[in-house]
């Protein structure tokens, strides 16, 4: 049973909100502050139990004979009062309605009685009300919609609205053939139905059977999110508004309290007397009577009436004029005994159109609650005689969200003052006025409260509007062959980087800190006239996200398995990523040069992981390679190219580009540099791009392999280093080219806002929940006081690094200590970080970045700790050791000094000499040097030679000039900073 709001529950019980809140308190259900608070199933039971215990004298909602005193008045008086919302009804209770359900299923021929009785959706609509008269038409609606409802569940993206039985028969019937197959297909798709996910699927062409499904699922979710308030768009509803209005204009309103609720002749249905029957949410009638036909006694001047806003909109949209509707209704009313009752046309009842009719928003259900669109007239509430001069409540109006109090009142006919009063009664203390914007939730509550029926139309976000064009599939004729994207995946140290280096003819592996890959790399190369985009991923377990990202952008996965190791944990993980991405896998059985290697064990491992090698009769190509001897490299390349040829990868280059951000960083001179893999369209300098919460105009694009090559435009399957974003986009975010910088900004900002809200909401909820849990267990203060928190401020070179560090730190689990990341940002350590560290007593962890001079001296001054790392697992090892109080004294890095490179000299045979000035401390011959460019550590090397003038020197002091040659690094440049340090065995303190 879903949670039920206080106000709804109070309404059922015939109590006011305050009374119920008091009852809750007494029943031991604490912490329900306002009418908007929700009660869980067990809490509802607790309240009911409390009420049934005789402690209070009030009506009960249970069907069973209750120990409470009987209602003071007749059943007619009580019935409307105890109209039961779904939240208050236990599933078993709904079984009392199974008789009705059987009738329905017989008539419709689809729904089983159990569907209605058992389904939560069905239950949601069934009322406990002991109502004698049940409309056959309504029953049909229940039966049909009850069957359709469960099939809607897989639509994950749809905001809140659970399917409900109150779905009008027409809508349910129409949408069923369109939706069910789509959702049934979409459900098993392994990839989330994201925009580019869908496009990628399409790009992968006809070889993938799932492409169509995913595309459809995407379209569905787009539709759903565009309207928010609907789960499905009836196929026939081209113009969502017109049919709805026509229906309502032409069909008589029903007065459910009137005699027509029976068989149509005004008499109650025979044989079903006093049976609990389902209640259905159908067209609400105006709350007050329309003026009677009696002629005015004296001639009055016709008032000058301004049409309400929604009526004006209707006319502008080409709908019927309000007066037309009015006259139509009048004509129809003549045939009726009473307003809203058509006593002549019984069939009309069965086919009664819902006021939600064909609208795409038609099945919007207010927050999953039962609609109260039906008008109830409590005894005494109906006016006995005389004319009602109050403005009739409107129904069938469209309410565009977000809306103000004024707009709500105009749309619903509820006076603004009454609306404001109700908002206040609901516990809103913000003192709203007529122009105040209401939250969607509040609108929903008010609609429920005033029992008005409105069609709520969620605002279509700019993002949906702008990015929807990326959902459109390219015409086959526009697709041209594109290079394959090949990702190297596998366990740490199995030789991915070495193999790729050997294939491309570069040497990346020797410059990697700690000998492990910590960043995703991507290059496009040309081999034997074929272009291929290669992506290298880290193998260390911390980089799961990067591996997943690599697998998600790839066409072909090359699984690198060291022949001496076989399938290891990250190999298995990589296999899963590749399988999830549904891409072909080519295995490179590497390190075959190692002596005494028999590849059989690795082959068995592969077979055990459902990758049966082709030489064993399976379908997986296994190529034996060695990055050292270059054995098997040609074979590997050929296998990749043949696989690519088989799959015919295509894309449309003549469209706005889209792609994926693989990595991003902040550089001091270039700003945000983002490694992007273009997957479709052509990306050009000057294009406006949006990527996650970042946006900008493409300023420059550089080749990823040869950064000096500037590119003006790049087509599909091309990785580039791109500048122009305002902030570093999140790795893995999708990039889209849009036509307007304003739109890009708006999309990025709204995403940022939503992200922020989510973060804030998440953290508050967790802490409150945790607190509540602890309070419950009565152990809040003592054990909490014992927990030591280590605050961290993370600074790293890329977002990917932050992601990986966070993941690693998340593994540190200790009962008495915990790590809290106060802030995690890309870029060098700044003064602001030091200030924050000072205020929050945090330690600053700088991964592959350094503090700027101001930050460094401030940190020294205030005693803030800046710990620097270049290998990811050292951070966790260090912190773990720190937290566990077992810091080893050895390997303490002692900073020695810093030198600026003023000039460089290239000497053949020797290499590049850096002419430096020592700016801080001193440089000693045995020191190691960090090479820093743009606040980022680009390498760490020992000193090969240190000279003053032409003489070798052991130490050069601050202010002096010297020549430094680094061992194994010749790419030193003017402006680089060299930091000297020594590793000493000294005691560490935190
Ligand atoms: N004998 C031998 N050694 C290899 C071969 N390929 C790589 N190695 C060595 O294995 C070690 C790890 O190689 P990498 O290329 O860094 O491995 P990796 O899989 O890229 O590692 P990560 O990116 O950190 O996951 C290095 O010392 C390489 O020299 C090979 O084919 N034969």
From TrEMBL:
GO terms for cellular component: cytosol. Residues 484-632 are annotated as: G-domain. Residues 183-196 have a biased composition (Low complexity). Keywords: Cytoplasm, GTP-binding, Initiation factor, Nucleotide-binding, Protein biosynthesis. Residues 481-650 form the Tr-type G domain. It is found in: Cytoplasm. Residues 156-179 have a biased composition (Basic and acidic residues). Residues 58-129, 144-394 are annotated as: Disordered. GTP binds at residues 490-497, 536-540, 590-593. Residues 99-115 have a biased composition (Acidic residues). Signal peptide: none annotated. InterPro entries: EF-G-like_DII, IF2_II, IF2_N, P-loop_NTPase, Small_GTP-bd, T_Tr_GTP-bd_dom, TF_IF2_bacterial-like, TIF_IF2. PANTHER family: TR-TYPE G DOMAIN-CONTAINING PROTEIN, TRANSLATION INITIATION FACTOR IF-2-RELATED. One of the essential components for the initiation of protein synthesis. Protects formylmethionyl-tRNA from spontaneous hydrolysis and promotes its binding to the 30S ribosomal subunits. Also involved in the hydrolysis of GTP during the formation of the 70S ribosomal complex. This is Translation initiation factor IF-2. It comes from Mariniblastus fucicola.
């Amino acid at each position: 049973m879903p949670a039920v709001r206080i106000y709804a529950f109070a309404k059922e019980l015939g109590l006011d909100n305050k009374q119920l809140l008091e009852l809750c308190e007494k029943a031991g259900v604490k912490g329900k502050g306002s009418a908007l608070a929700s009660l869980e199933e067990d809490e509802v039971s607790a309240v009911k139990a409390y009420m049934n215990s005789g402690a209070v004298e009030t009506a009960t909602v249970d069907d069973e004979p209750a120990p409470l005193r009987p209602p003071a008045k007749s059943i007619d008086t009580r019935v409307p009062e105890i109209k039961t919302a779904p939240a208050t009804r236990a599933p078993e209770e709904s079984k009392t309605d199974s008789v009705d359900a059987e009738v329905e299923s017989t008539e419709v021929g689809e729904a089983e009685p159990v569907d209605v009785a058992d389904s939560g959706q069905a239950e949601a609509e069934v009322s406990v009300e002991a109502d004698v008269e049940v409309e056959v038409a309504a029953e049909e609606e229940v039966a049909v919609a009850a069957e359709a409802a469960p099939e809607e569940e897989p639509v994950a993206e749809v905001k809140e609205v659970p399917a409900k039985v109150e779905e009008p028969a027409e809508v349910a019937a129409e949408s069923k053939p369109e939706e069910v197959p789509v959702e049934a297909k979409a459900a098993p798709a392994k990839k989330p139905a994201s925009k580019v996910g869908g496009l990628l699927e399409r790009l992968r062409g006809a070889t993938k059977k799932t492409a169509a499904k995913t595309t459809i699922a995407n379209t569905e979710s787009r539709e759903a999110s565009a309207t928010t308030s609907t789960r499905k768009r009836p196929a026939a509803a081209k113009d969502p508004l017109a049919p709805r209005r026509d229906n309502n204009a032409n069909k008589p309103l029903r007065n459910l309290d009137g005699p027509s609720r029976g068989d149509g002749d005004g008499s109650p249905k025979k044989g079903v007397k006093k049976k609990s029957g389902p209640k259905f949410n159908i067209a609400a009638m105006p709350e007050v009577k329309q003026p009677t036909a009696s002629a005015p006694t004296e001639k009055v001047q016709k008032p000058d009436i301004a049409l309400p806003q929604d009526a004006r909109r209707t006319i502008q949209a080409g709908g019927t004029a309000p007066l037309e509707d009015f006259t139509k209704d009048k004509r129809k009313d003549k045939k009726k005994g009473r307003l809203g009752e058509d006593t002549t046309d019984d069939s009309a009842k069965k086919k009664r159109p819902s006021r939600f009719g064909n609208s795409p928003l038609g099945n919007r259900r207010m927050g999953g609650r039962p609609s109260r669109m039906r008008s109830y007239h409590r005894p005494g509430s109906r006016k006995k005689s005389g004319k009602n001069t109050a403005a009739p409540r409107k129904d069938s109006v469209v309410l565009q969200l977000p809306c103000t109090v004024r707009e709500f009142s105009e749309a619903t006919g509820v006076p603004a003052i009454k609306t404001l009063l109700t908002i206040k009664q609901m516990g809103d203390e913000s003192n709203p006025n007529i122009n105040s914007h209401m939250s969607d939730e509040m609108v929903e509550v008010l609609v429920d409260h005033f029992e008005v029926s409105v069609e709520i139309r969620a605002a279509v976000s700019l993002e949906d509007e702008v990015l929807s064009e990326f959902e459109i599939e390219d015409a086959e004729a526009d697709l041209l062959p594109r290079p394959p994207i090949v990702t190297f995946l596998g366990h740490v140290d199995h030789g991915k980087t070495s193999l790729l280096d050997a294939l491309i003819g570069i040497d990346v592996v020797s410059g990697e800190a700690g000998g492990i890959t910590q960043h995703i790399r991507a290059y496009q190369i040309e081999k034997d006239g074929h272009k291929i985009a290669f992506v290298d991923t880290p193998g260390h377990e911390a980089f799961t996200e990067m591996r997943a990202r690599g697998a998600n952008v790839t066409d072909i996965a090359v699984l690198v398995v060291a022949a001496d190791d076989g399938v290891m944990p990250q190999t298995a993980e990589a296999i899963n990523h590749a399988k999830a991405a549904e891409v072909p896998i080519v295995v490179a059985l590497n390190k075959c040069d190692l002596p005494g290697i028999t590849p059989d064990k690795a082959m068995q491992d592969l077979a055990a992981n459902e990758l049966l090698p082709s030489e064993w009769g399976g379908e997986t190509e296994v190529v034996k390679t060695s990055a050292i001897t270059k054995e098997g490299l040609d074979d590997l390349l050929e296998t990749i190219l043949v696989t690519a040829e088989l799959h015919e990868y295509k894309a449309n280059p003549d469209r706005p580009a889209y792609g994926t951000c693989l990595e991003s960083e902040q550089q001091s001179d270039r700003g945000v540099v983002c490694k992007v893999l273009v997957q479709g369209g052509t990306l050009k300098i000057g294009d406006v791009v949006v990527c996650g919460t970042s946006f900008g105009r493409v300023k420059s694009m550089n080749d990823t392999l040869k950064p000096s090559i500037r590119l003006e435009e790049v087509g599909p399957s091309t990785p580039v280093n791109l500048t122009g974003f305002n902030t570093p986009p999140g790795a893995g975010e999708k990039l889209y080219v849009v036509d307007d910088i304003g739109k890009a900004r708006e999309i990025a900002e709204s995403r940022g806002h939503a992200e922020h809200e989510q973060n804030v909401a998440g953290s508050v909820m967790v802490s409150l929940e945790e607190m509540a849990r602890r309070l419950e267990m009565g152990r809040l203060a003592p054990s909490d006081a014992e927990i030591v928190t280590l605050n961290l401020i993370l600074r790293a070179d890329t977002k990917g690094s932050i992601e990986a560090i966070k993941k690693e730190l998340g593994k540190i689990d200790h009962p008495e200590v915990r790590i809290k990341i106060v802030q995690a940002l890309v870029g060098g350590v700044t003064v602001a970080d030091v200030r924050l560290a000072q205020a929050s007593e945090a330690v600053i962890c700088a991964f592959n970045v350094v503090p700027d001079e101001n930050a460094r001296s401030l940190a020294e001054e205030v005693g803030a700790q800046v710990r620097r790392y270049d290998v990811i697992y050292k951070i966790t090892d260090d912190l773990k050791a720190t937290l566990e109080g077992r810091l080893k004294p050895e390997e303490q890095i002692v900073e020695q000094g810093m030198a600026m490179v003023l000039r460089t000299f290239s000497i053949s045979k020797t290499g590049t000499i850096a002419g430096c000035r020592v700016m801080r401390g001193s440089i000693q011959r045995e020191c190691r040097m960090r090479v820093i460019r743009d606040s980022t550590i680009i390498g760490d090397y020992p000193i090969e030679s240190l000279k003053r003038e032409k003489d070798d020197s052991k130490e050069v002091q601050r202010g002096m000039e010297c020549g430094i040659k680094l061992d194994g690094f010749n790419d030193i440049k003017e402006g680089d900073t060299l930091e000297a340090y020594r590793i000493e065995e000294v005691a560490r303190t935190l």
